[in-house]
């Protein structure tokens, strides 16, 4: 990190450090005010989502404009991303068509190329009029003081070259020593994220515009962010610092596909979010996320940097128990279940009664709308009712048949 900051300064860039999201916002707004910025065009940046930067910019009188197509759609809808690679994957074609018609004031279109052309025409004006460009960085390269930006849309290069000021917001875990290290990671990232050999745009952004350069910012600022990352070093969760935010774990997770990204409640959904969110926001603020897993290890097996995600979720569960963060009712229920399960005859008697009770609770459709003993389970879902018999009873009947 020190080498990166030194090399970045050599190229004319400025290096700043932020402890948390509030400091990110303060630093970006300070840079904007020093350069008379009224509009900021943004490339995709998950760290800006962590910091709630768009809200802070708007409150300071600076218009933030997301220019990644998915992020732009989500911003127009007043929502947050549901996937770190495909932020608007939860939106239907008709929903987006209605959103564009309402926002752009143009005739409604449902032809996808025509819709993307419409978004491009609207965003082009923002690229040309924004005084500041804000981006993240997939990697920082220490030996050259460069930021590497990997995208599939041309908006990343528009944001980083057209405005007079470019601000890069990135986590301190993104630094790699050399260009050779970056090349190795580039063989992993696109393949794991989108199945491509290489992304459409790979940009190495170094310094500011020099005499004779046709493009590039007059001012480049790197904001290097901690926001909970430094405390992971040397801890049981250090392996999460290897995460390259490819989204492969989300693409293979049966729980994520069932729930959707917004159910995870913060910037990072899916298996990686189930570990990162408790670590960044506090375990007491995300008690359910480490349990939002089947433990199938689909995420661990596809992770290109070999992060043992199920193991880390199990560790977080253990930390909850040892820290006394689990509700007393849960502990009591588990102890009761262990006591009953240790007595086979009693266990079978209880299960028979329970299966008949659940069958009785269901309506004609075979769904349980209110679970009497644990109503929390049916607040947001209906449960399919069992057959009214235990597995052993059904198995015995099948053998007799």
Note down, in words, how this protein is organized.
The structure is a single chain. The protein is built from 18 helices and 12 strands. The model has no long low-confidence stretch (mean pLDDT 94). It has helices at residues 2-10, 21-34, 46-51, 53-59, 69-77, 93-104, 112-129, 155-161, 179-186, 189-194, 248-251, 254-259, 270-281, 298-302, 309-322, 328-341, 344-361, 391-400, and strands spanning 14-18, 39-42, 63-66, 132-135, 139-141, 146-151, 165-171, 175-176, 201-205, 219-225, 367-368, 383-384. The strands form 3 sheets. Strands 1-10-7-4-2-3 form a 6-stranded parallel beta sheet, with helices on both faces. The chain has 401 residues and is an alpha/beta fold.
What oligomeric assembly is this protein in? single chain
Shape: elongated
What's the count of strands?
A: 12
Cα distance spanning the termini: 71 Å
Mean pLDDT: 94
Radius of gyration: 25 Å
* Uncertain spans: none
Biggest sheet: strands, sense, closure?
A: 6 strands, parallel
The secondary structure category is alpha/beta
Order of helix and strand elements from N to C terminus: HEHEHHEHHHEEEHEEHHEEHHHHHHHEEH
Strand percent estimate:
5-15%
Query: How much helical structure, as a percent, in the residues?
Result: 40-55%
* Alpha plus pi helix count: 18
